[in-house]
């Protein structure tokens, strides 16, 4: 079974053409979209709204680089004190 339906591909193609012609705008801010990735995402989102065969969107938060925002178990998130880096900011008078 195909992962994406024909109508989903058509919607993405339409979004890409609108991006090239400069008429594709982002939903929230209304700014013109120039990124191919963003145009693809908009096309797939429109296809989902029309009940086309498109896999569900991943709900995990991601950073700009495509990875998870922050490692789930970094020491400073678990309540451990951070280690100092070099000289203290406010030297104490002895």
3D structure, described in words:
The protein is mainly α and 94 residues long. It has a domain at 1-54. It is 32% helix and 0% strand. The protein has helices spanning 6-21, 36-49. Helix 1 packs across helix 2 (36-49). It is elongated. The N and C termini lie far apart (74 Å).
Structural key phrases:
mainly alpha; 94 residues; 2 helices; single chain
The pLDDT mean sits at 77
Total number of strands: 0
Beta-strand proportion? under 5%
How many helices does DSSP assign? 2
Structural class: mainly alpha
Helical content, roughly?
A: 25-40%
- Poorly predicted regions are none
The oligomeric status of these chains comes to single chain
The coarse silhouette is elongated
- Distance N terminus to C terminus? 74 Å
From the alpha-carbon coordinates, what is the Rg to the nearest angstrom?
22 Å
SSE series: HH
Largest sheet: none
């Amino acid at each position: 079974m195909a992962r994406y339906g024909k109508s989903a591909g058509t919607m993405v193609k339409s979004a890409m053409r609108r991006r090239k012609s400069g008429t594709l705008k982002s939903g929230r801010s209304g700014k013109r979209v120039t990124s191919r990735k963003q145009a693809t995402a908009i096309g797939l989102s429109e296809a989902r709204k029309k009940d086309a065969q498109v896999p569900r969107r991943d709900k995990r938060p991601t950073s700009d680089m495509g990875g998870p925002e922050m490692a789930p178990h970094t020491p400073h998130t678990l309540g451990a004190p951070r280690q100092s880096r070099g000289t203290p900011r406010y030297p104490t008078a002895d």
